[in-house]
Amino acid sequence: MIPTSVRIGLIGAGRIGTSHANVIARRVPEATLVAVADPRPGVAADLAEPLGARAETSVEAVLAADDVDAVVIAASSVAHADLIVAAAAAGKHVFSEKPAGMTLDEIDGARRATADAGVAFQVGFNRRFAREFVEAHDAIVAGRLGTVRQLRSLTRDPGRGPSDPDVVPPWTIFTQTLIHDFDTLNWLNPGAQAVDVVATAGSLTAPGHPTLLDHATVVIRYDNGAIATAEASFAATYGYDVRGEVLGSEGMVTMGDGAQSSLRLHNADGRLAATSHSDTDLLIDAYTGELAEFAQAVRDGRAPAVTGDDAFGAFAIAQACIDSMTSGARASVAQGV
């Protein structure tokens, strides 16, 4: 248990790392940003110094630092699992961006390493901290919808598709984008396990590209009989869009509409709503909530609200999507929780 502010070292100063650094330093009173590590010359210093933190060029320096209680991992996804294991070995509590690994074996190794070390381990599934999604989850748990029967979650990234499709790793739409939706659906169907999936995806912004998948729809069956769909697009010209819906035997809840706020402008052009064009804009309060939860869990000496088991459950669906796309058939979801 840490009675004072949790001292955090950030690993990775890219787009999401920059957002996390600013959130920790300016919006999470339970935490203090003390160090930023990034191997690129000058990048860590440019981010750290205005926020009152120091810059490091190596992960090892952060993990060896006596004034670092916990790390926030925002490096490349392919490095997440190794960084989680290394941080746990150093006795640091761990918050990792999703996914926690690029295979189920990697994620299982990460959750075992943190458990063996006795450190907190949280994965960045931010929708669990978005107000509308929290209220929907509370309504479901309270039984206000009755029995959950159908669910829907979608993510649409702003723009017209990747500027260079060749740099998008294969299966990104499942392992990096829809993984948020898979976790959301699992969370909104409490107590149920995903059984199997059918995935359909294609390259619609770069037809014929050999590896890019920029639009996808997934159908998931759960062991309580519920049926869920998850949708993603890399080309929503109107902005960043995150939504959800749950239908139960006694009612329905919907979440999100892509608008920045409830303000609507009514004029000769119609009824207009401003939209966000980035996740760190639309979901800034959710990003704040997840990092505040991590810091508080470390201070309390308890497990965070989102754990390695949740990371495994979401990635198991992503892997089943890859299996379904490869086989052209329904694919089973691994059970490892």
From TrEMBL:
Sample GO molecular function, one term: oxidoreductase activity
This protein's UniProt keywords: Oxidoreductase
Coiled coil: none
Entry annotated with the keyword Oxidoreductase: yes
Alphabetized SUPFAM superfamilies for the sequence: Glyceraldehyde-3-phosphate dehydrogenase-like, C-terminal domain, NAD(P)-binding Rossmann-fold domains
Domain Gfo/Idh/MocA-like oxidoreductase N-terminal: 6-125
Domain Gfo/Idh/MocA-like oxidoreductase C-terminal: 139-330
Protein origin, superkingdom: Bacteria
Homology family: Belongs to the Gfo/Idh/MocA family.
Name of the protein: Dehydrogenase
